[in-house]
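Bug report

Summary: structure tokens for Peptidyl-tRNA hydrolase differ between web form and batch submission.
Environment: batch mode, default settings.
Steps: 1) Submit the sequence below via batch. 2) Compare with the web form result.

Sequence submitted:
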Amino acid sequence: MAQTWLVVGLGNPGPQYELTRHNVGQMVVDLLADRRGEKFKTHKAGARVAEGWLRPGGAKIVLAKLNSFMNVSGGPVADLARFYHVDPAHIVIVHDELDIPFDSLRLKAGGGHGGHNGVRDVAQALGSPEFARVRVGIGRPAGRQDAADWVLSPFSAADRRALPVLLADAADAVELLIGEGLTAAQQRYHAPRD
């Protein structure tokens, strides 16, 4: 039987947050579902899920967008992990990252939360930080804009033009991580862009 992976795109629920920087994780998961022709369905764990396969005969993947706010992501992730019998080593959390420049990705497994409240809550609820993260760079605001206001604001017009490529790269990185492992994905996506 193929290993099941749980891929969670962090974000906030509601149309007012849909296109904000904080919801870039959910945008990546939407793209992964679109690639598979899968639609999201309501799940009792307080999430919307779409189930599919990495590729025919490959790993099963459960894509999830939570109905809870970012800072309380842990409970629904833990509930989904129990429901689908997925251990932390087979969970991928896709989230925004202030400390990475826009249009860049970083991948890691385990370690600290780097001040990201959603990642912190997931680690606490799972009782382990040993899950993979695909960290999508949104950069820091220029000047004195508050970071909380920045993450909850929509992408600029210039960033929106570059966003489809960033989302595609992040979706590709998730697929590579699951299909070939973390090291292969890091080698591909941590390299400087041409």
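Above is the batch result. After comparison, the two runs are identical; trailing whitespace caused the diff. The helical segments are 24-36, 74-84, 117-126, 147-151, 157-180, 182-189. The chain is about 35% helix and 20% strand.
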